[in-house]
UniProtKB/TrEMBL annotation:
<dbReference type="Pfam" id="PF13738">
    <property type="entry name" value="Pyr_redox_3"/>
</dbReference>
<dbReference type="GO" id="GO:0050660">
    <property type="term" value="F:flavin adenine dinucleotide binding"/>
</dbReference>
<keyword id="KW-0560">Oxidoreductase</keyword>
<dbReference type="InterPro" id="IPR036188">
    <property type="entry name" value="FAD/NAD-bd_sf"/>
</dbReference>
<dbReference type="GO" id="GO:0004497">
    <property type="term" value="F:monooxygenase activity"/>
</dbReference>
<dbReference type="InterPro" id="IPR050982">
    <property type="entry name" value="Auxin_biosynth/cation_transpt"/>
</dbReference>
<protein>
    <submittedName>
        <fullName>NAD(P)/FAD-dependent oxidoreductase</fullName>
    </submittedName>
</protein>
Amino acid sequence: SGRGPRHAPVVVIGGGQAGLAVGYHLRRAGLAPEEEVVVLDDAPSPGGAWPHMWDSLRLFSPAEHSSLPGWRMPATRDGFPRAEHVVDYLTRYEERYGLGVRRPVRVTAVHRGAPDAPRYRLETTEGPWTAEAVVSTTGTWRRPFWPRYSGQETFRGHQLHAADYREPSALAGRHVVVVGGGNSAAQLLAEVSTVASTTWVTPRPPRFLPDEVDGRALFEIATRRAVALARGETDDGGVGGLGDVVVVPSVMEARSRGVLQARPLPGEITREGLRWPDGHEEQADVVLWCTGFRPDLGHLAPLRLTRHDGVPRTTGTEVVGEPGLHLLGYGDWTGPASATLVGVGRPAKDAARAVVEHLRGGQPKRP
Ligand code: FAD
């Protein structure tokens, strides 16, 4: 359309749980959804990454401990919630609070506005938008992390990432190597090992939480770690903050079958399988990479944000030097346990408060 760009004081990029949580708090702070705060989401339907997760996936915490701000996730009868229960909850949450998510709209680039124009200009699949503040909540699902291994490209077997996995039948009767030490690896190893022979390789010996402790403790641990980090104290490690494995029923059952023996990472991948530095070799038909994800931030490239440890430098959710730009939901670096349902609420509230401050500050300082 020949019209100029549409404008909203705040644009939230991404309508998954993180986008909804900050949308909820911005609305509570008095901003009118669809006019003053617009949520642009490129998915055809609600739920963020949750519709894409494998069929048998269970949350590693009970429903009442997996809630977004304002509305408790409805309880489930048969154990921890499945992914479709989360999709249903997020769908209803969006309607309940009238967060007016516009979808499918993909934000392809965020630029700084011209000196006398609004602070940000966004290119999107429905035309340009401008905003005084932007909250990026695009998640990590579309950036699965594949480690680089010498020999990987000549491996004659099949390779897939946890993000591509739906259910085990295609792997039946084969030898599957599961790579990774987190919850996804343990849950997929537990499932795949019911139909295939498996080898589990992990960067460090896997750390299981005590049986009676579930995901709740992970959030406390992640929060304590993030607080310690914020104080400049050392961090006790743990893969991505949620690296400790919750012994959900399927993992407990797999342990009783003795499949949870982990080997260190191999040195290389051969045509036939894996080879360790001590010369030990194992044939493999499939390598299942449960090696996590990276933040999906390509749309922010035009802003040339300074990076630290591969991610933009932030204090809490605010990008250092960019008071109108917030990042939320990507991992501990955007707030303790902010990449989880129960953990995203607090940093979302902080981000909303900072955005409202920024808007009140009138015409923001030019960068
Ligand atoms: P997402 O859910 O990925 O949502 C991002 C949204 O932004 C999507 O709708 C996407 O389409 C959209 N988007 C992306 N780029 C653009 C763009 N350029 N323009 C417009 N829209 C865009 N957490 C728990 O609390 N408990 C668990 O048990 C748990 N288990 C997990 C298991 C797995 C396998 C994984 C991967 C994660 C798990 N998590 C769990 C972590 C976390 O809750 C999920 O990763 C969740 O999806 C993160 O929500 P999000 O809103 O940050 O990102």
